[in-house]
Design goal:
heterodimer; A: alpha+beta; 4-stranded antiparallel β-sheet; two-stranded antiparallel sheet; 8 helices; 6 strands; about 10% strand; globular; B: alpha+beta
Chain lengths: ~280, ~260
């Protein structure tokens, strides 16, 4: 006998769906059959370091900003978003295929190179491309499984970066996070959470920056003006190109100062979990 | 009006059986698999992609000659590398046992990289690992020299390869949902690339699809390239004929009968 009312039980149930999704990740077919894949489910207060690390990146990366704000707002509203972390060992090849896809003639040369450069990229790397395929098939099965349960979700590189920076799944070379729930429509697509920080001006400037040809006037002169305002007769504006010390400085500051500061706060606690054994098992 | 009349005549029957291979009833069965492969492809196209950028191309291939050509190319590739020999030879048998082959390729992994500095390709903080090894001008990669000393002309943008995995994964998910058997193979992809399928792609995965009583892609015996259903059937033709030849009698006049035992009287 019972009577469930409201959304709380439903939001809590997302965690159970996450467990089902993990089943699908590990059932996913592989091309090589030799790629190690690990999963973790992260929710509640354990999301805090991940959201915190995404914060500074959000200042310099628009897509991270939307991921950050969505997760942060959902979490703070108590909607219980859950992250299914998926990682794989891709920086070492045990295939001996020597296929060349990685850029090296042999797997042996790739392994020697990867030994020194492992984990050097923002999302990990270097990668055996066949193992990457196994990994992304598994990530795709996480997404497909979530859709099958009709829970809004999005596979996120931004979360993957946070997992890597914070030292989640230390044995894995590449990490992505499937943001799962809350149980409602349009959490991670056509995001309502963006309404607070989005403005017409911001969006317009983004479009001018990203798709400048949409705003280019007659190019026959060689240095076209740009149609950036309603007043056609107003003084024209032109596009310029150049190194931006400010932009680079902000990026450096974010990656090498702000992110490490946050990582240091949480790293010991996260590392300790792996010493004790697998988290939450 | 013609269409309406046709609709009034909507009636018929189809006999379907996987035995004998390539018979009309088997080909009708294959047509169902073809529809499944098309739906798998739909799923591949709607998989998540970095930045929502389309970069998937695909070929759906079917027919006895077409599948035989793919299997033979796989056998050719198998003998190039010790690590490939046995698995690729086994997989060539699986292709012959398939109904439809789906090739999924990525058109950007070798040419128009994601340029996001993710480092997946070489473990660096930018895309230089990719561009330093490519012929390019201002980051526009010249792909016209298609010669390669390796099977795949690397390096590739691994973020794009990752996208291709999403496409393949979604195709496989739909295969599972539709309960047709399918498996992703590197060997089939490599053969497809050499045969010119998905020719705008830097890397291809082959996904054979089948709907038969026995899943062709699992539970194989050792030396599967030497001992498989085709070979067993051919072996039967070889052995049984001779077994007949060595004992001839005129069945119209006399047929040997089992000896009667005492109990039977």
């Amino acid at each position: 006998m019972g009577h469930l009312i409201g959304m709380k039980y439903c939001q809590e149930h997302v965690l159970e769906v996450a467990k089902n999704i993990v089943l699908a990740v590990h059932k996913a077919p592989q091309i090589t059959g030799k790629t190690e894949i690990e999963t973790e489910i992260i929710w509640g207060e354990d999301l805090e370091p991940i959201i915190e690390v995404m914060g500074p990146i959000a200042q310099v990366m628009r897509y991270v900003q939307w991921d950050y704000e969505t997760l942060k707002n959902c979490y703070e509203k108590g909607e219980n978003p859950v992250i299914v972390a998926v990682g794989a060992k891709t920086a070492k090849s045990n295939l001996a295929w020597d296929c060349g896809a990685c850029g090296f003639a042999t797997c042996k040369e790739f392994n020697a190179y990867a030994k020194d450069t492992r984990g050097g990229g923002q999302l990990g790397g270097p990668s055996c491309n066949w193992k990457t395929l196994d990994y992304s098939i598994a990530c795709d099965w996480a997404c497909a499984s979530a859709w099958q349960y009709r829970v809004d979700n999005r596979i996120m590189g931004s979360v993957g970066f946070a997992l890597l920076a914070l030292g989640f799944m230390p044995d894995m070379d590449v990490k992505l996070g499937l943001a799962l729930g809350p149980p409602r429509d349009m959490v991670y697509y056509s995001r309502e959470e963006m309404h607070k920080s989005m403005s017409y001006e911001l969006d317009k400037q983004d479009m001018i920056n990203c798709v400048p040809t949409m705003f280019t006037a007659f190019p026959g002169g060689g240095t076209p003006m740009y149609k950036t305002k309603d007043e056609w007769w107003a003084p024209p504006e032109f596009m310029g190109m150049g190194y931006s010390p400010e932009a680079m400085e902000v990026m450096q500051q974010v990656l090498f100062e702000q992110v490490p500061e946050i990582v240091v706060k949480h790293a010991d606690k996260i590392e300790a979990r792996y010493k004790k054994g697998k988290k939450k098992e | 009006m013609k269409k309406y009349e046709e609709d009034l005549n909507f009636r018929g029957e189809e006999y379907v059986s996987e035995w004998t291979p390539w018979s009309p009833q088997d080909i009708r069965r294959k047509k169902g698999v073809l529809e499944s492969a098309r739906m798998m492809l739909n799923s591949a196209l709607t998989a998540p992609f970095a930045g929502g950028v389309p970069s998937t191309e695909a070929h759906i291939v079917y027919g006895q000659e077409e599948l035989e050509a793919i299997a033979r190319k796989m056998e050719e590739i198998a003998h190039r590398k010790k690590a490939w020999k046995e698995p690729f030879l086994y997989e060539a048998v699986m292709v012959r046992d398939s109904d439809v082959i789906l090739f999924i390729g990525n058109t950007r992994c070798h040419e128009t990289a994601l340029d996001a500095g993710c480092g997946l390709c070489g473990g660096g903080m930018d895309c230089s690992y990719f561009y330093e090894q490519k012929t390019h001008r201002n980051g526009l990669v010249d792909i016209t020299d298609r010669s390669s000393e390796t099977q795949i002309k690397g390096p590739l943008c691994t973020a794009r390869v990752n996208d291709m995995g999403y496409a393949v994964g979604s195709a496989l998910w739909t295969a599972h949902t539709l309960m047709v058997d399918a498996r992703p193979f590197a060997s089939v992809g490599m053969a497809g690339q050499e045969l010119g399928y998905c020719r705008n792609s830097g890397m291809i995965v082959g996904v054979p699809v089948a709907a038969k009583a026995k899943n062709p892609y699992v539970d194989v015996n050792v030396d599967y390239h030497l001992i498989n259903m085709d070979k067993v059937l051919d072996n039967t033709r070889k052995i049984y004929q001779t077994a007949r030849i060595i004992r001839g009698f005129d069945y119209r006049k006399w047929i040997p009968k089992p000896k009667k035992t005492d109990e039977e009287g």
